[in-house]
User: Fold this.
Amino acid sequence: MSNADAALTWHCNADVAGGPLPGLRGTLELAGLSVACAITEVYAVAKHQRVLVICGPGNNGGDGLVAARHLRHFGYSPVICYPKRTDKPLYKGLVTQLESLHIPFVTVGELTAPLSSDYDIILDAIFGFSFKGTPRPPFDSVLKMLAVPEDKTAADLGVPPIVSVDIPSGWDVEGGDVNSIGLRPDMLVCSK
Ligand SMILES: NC(=O)C1=CN([C@@H]2O[C@H](COP(=O)(O)OP(=O)(O)OC[C@H]3O[C@@H](n4cnc5c(N)ncnc54)[C@H](OP(=O)(O)O)[C@@H]3O)[C@@H](O)[C@H]2O)[C@@H](O)CC1
Assistant:
């Protein structure tokens, strides 16, 4: 059994450690762990160690914060961009856990093109099913860095493989890429 499988089994096993965590904390933990496990299956740490985790202001961002912690435990080197934080205790706790693991945080201004020079994978945890309208700052400029127009390739633009949580960020949950954001993830991790 891999470390990722062991972690997922532990989380889902109601007989250990009092069982799964309740409420939003529990769902974030399970979602984030599942995302990290999915990444280990597809992007081996030996070739994809440097992971940029971009977290939005809602629960999609929370999935990303949890995934970053597990990725670190699985041997990856995550770096987090979390430009719009909340004061909610659950989220402050997630950030404290990441800081205690010495996982670096970067600002949007510190992200420079081409991203492939600094990162092997991007984890897109910016927006999920509650995204509405057109992206507002600072996420509009982040999404532009991740966009790959139809007539270009990610390699042309130096955009690393993108793993999106639940929905490609900037896409409408029903209508798709109605704003022509151009974010085209290589992998989507979502719950059924
Ligand atoms: N059962 C569950 O709930 C579970 C949910 N889970 C995960 O959570 C995700 C849903 O989470 P969510 O509902 O918190 O919303 P999410 O998509 O993260 O974004 C909301 C934030 O985005 C912002 N925002 C919106 N539009 C914007 C714009 N145009 N430009 C800029 N900002 C904009 C908006 O800001 P506001 O409009 O309030 O100012 C708000 O702060 C879901 O997809 C899944 O991944 C799983 O963990 C497990 C169970």
Notes: The first helix runs from residue 3 to 12. The chain has a mean pLDDT of 92. The longest strand covers residues 50-55.
